[in-house]
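PROTOCOL LOG
Step 1. Enter all chains and additional molecules of the complex.
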Amino acid sequence: MATTHLYTDAEVEANPKVKAVFDDIRETRGSDFVNNIWRALAADPPGLERTWETVKSLMTVPGELDAKTREMIYIAVSVANGCSYCVHSHTAAAKAKGMSDAEHGELMQIVALAASTNHLVTALQVPVDPEFQVE
Amino acid sequence: MATTHLYTDAEVEANPKVKAVFDDIRETRGSDFVNNIWRALAADPPGLERTWETVKSLMTVPGELDAKTREMIYIAVSVANGCSYCVHSHTAAAKAKGMSDAEHGELMQIVALAASTNHLVTALQVPVDPEFQVE
Amino acid sequence: MATTHLYTDAEVEANPKVKAVFDDIRETRGSDFVNNIWRALAADPPGLERTWETVKSLMTVPGELDAKTREMIYIAVSVANGCSYCVHSHTAAAKAKGMSDAEHGELMQIVALAASTNHLVTALQVPVDPEFQVE
Amino acid sequence: MATTHLYTDAEVEANPKVKAVFDDIRETRGSDFVNNIWRALAADPPGLERTWETVKSLMTVPGELDAKTREMIYIAVSVANGCSYCVHSHTAAAKAKGMSDAEHGELMQIVALAASTNHLVTALQVPVDPEFQVE
Amino acid sequence: MATTHLYTDAEVEANPKVKAVFDDIRETRGSDFVNNIWRALAADPPGLERTWETVKSLMTVPGELDAKTREMIYIAVSVANGCSYCVHSHTAAAKAKGMSDAEHGELMQIVALAASTNHLVTALQVPVDPEFQVE
Amino acid sequence: MATTHLYTDAEVEANPKVKAVFDDIRETRGSDFVNNIWRALAADPPGLERTWETVKSLMTVPGELDAKTREMIYIAVSVANGCSYCVHSHTAAAKAKGMSDAEHGELMQIVALAASTNHLVTALQVPVDPEFQVE
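Step 2. Run joint prediction.
Step 3. Record the structure below.
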């Protein structure tokens, strides 16, 4: 199932703009495997390039947070947004970057707890304490 | 605004079950300040107790993840679920547990990136790569 | 705050199509009070009429479920969708139709539990048991 | 997978109320193909009729917006609400009504951008500028 | 598809903590069938135990609301959160607890109506009427 | 309310990276008014720059869709994601780019209809028709 065609490697090779992004993905990750989101985005080269540039700058370059923590945050958002593909791909990425089964279990418990208090607070329409406001 | 009454300290004192939870919150956190979610939950003592027990066991006891990381995951879920109160309270908590402004900025950029690819993937209905499936 | 003008009673009187809907709301509910959603919808008479007809047929006419249960289901959806106005208005409606504080407390606990297992299941990507599928 | 039975054409023929709606769908669309949402709704004839009447009046009759734009808006909402079936069916409809691949690509980029700034703004809890408020 | 391994009965038997929860599920429900969510949670025994204790106390013990109503509220939240597994499992549970096809149809119409007015109100940014505010 | 400080014009002037983005916003839009999202993002210059570059390239440069349609799609996503600030700012932008009151009314009706069928389909777990699948 998909609403768009997934580019094969042969089709990627035939399109220089798409090929340049795929080459950079492969080089940055040090792996020949390119997963389906990039093959689905390939039909829109500017969108493909924009998405990859942002992913590359935020998820592959050293920054404030370590790579494992970033992937766990990505999982948390993807769960709350109900994105099955993203949960699968970023759970795999987090494991590849060192997330243990115990950390995975705790992550899921925190995500579930946050969801439950998010709903409780919305049901109760709790007003924000002045202590929490920056301005 | 609220759909329920917020218990004052005097009302808390008058209800032994509620008082026991508030006492534990104050002792566990080492602070007299008890924020509004607990005051709103006080009208339902079993719900108050259940919620606090889960928060206490997952957010205040040493576990797999450090306290700051847990709060950042909590923020990520709360943003995706659109809970204004939770975003305020857990951003304050994360800062109290050491989140720097630079880490806060990176967290928000990752949350925003995850949201954008969550929506892209849902729009494209990208099929899950077999490589990402555990079983 | 609003993205549209809220019709005053004088403006309602001046527009026969809007007035007809407001008259029916007042007669159906047996009350002169017309809340803000209808005043906001008044700028789009066909939308106002369509929305009221559906609300009237599903929420005010005897059906399969009793009036209180319907309002509690309405609250549950509104919480999950993060609609502050709807949570306020349907909590007031549920109380007017007999929801006790204890029932309100239990409703919120079930909503919070459902949210937590919704997120757990999405994080785990649990496959549907064949026993649950109708076809 | 479904939580309800999908009506076959033979079952539709045997139920006059359901048949009347299916006949109108086929005539309005000028096609014999009736997709699964209507077959799933057929078990609840009043719900089937109410849903079709609204779809018919908003999506098939000339109005303020052209047919292609309406379908693109429908896709945008369906993506944000995570409805896989709806994304598939309305992407097909938008293409049938003239959406080009380039327009599809731009639509997805705008949806993704909106999602990212939605999350950024919620994370930052940005107060609404007075300039944006109607009243 | 899953991001975690699903425990078989043999694996459950080999883990005393997991076995204790599974035994309690089977005894509480009076059935040998244990559905996949518990098999997916089994890798994290504290999470498994916490989740089951909450489900047991809120969904199987007599309380304020009857068992069928609780399941219908659970369905409503699960639909709004887009959890396919949960919609399937709680629709089956609601039917097992007496939900008729007509009640199921009405539930879905109310959920759909709530979703539509949730979105209308958010689009219009309707301010909360003072009459609806508790404090 | 906010979880971050909103930069004043004086603070913007004092930070060359932030000033460069604000200057470009003012020049691109032909207006001195810079709304709060940019003032909130200013504390994270790389995030500010990345967000503005994407907004600029997708929302201000001629593309496949006209400016008004883009803003209406932005509103639709923002409503479904429950972002109050975004609904306010993009409704103002859509009106500035020519959206009439009648178009606004129709947009809201389509958003509400999409939300209702999104929820119906999720409740029914309707399987995707093979006719809608690209591959």
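Step 4. Note key features.
DSSP finds seven helices and no strands in chain A.
Chain A touches chain B through 69 residues (CB under 8 Å).
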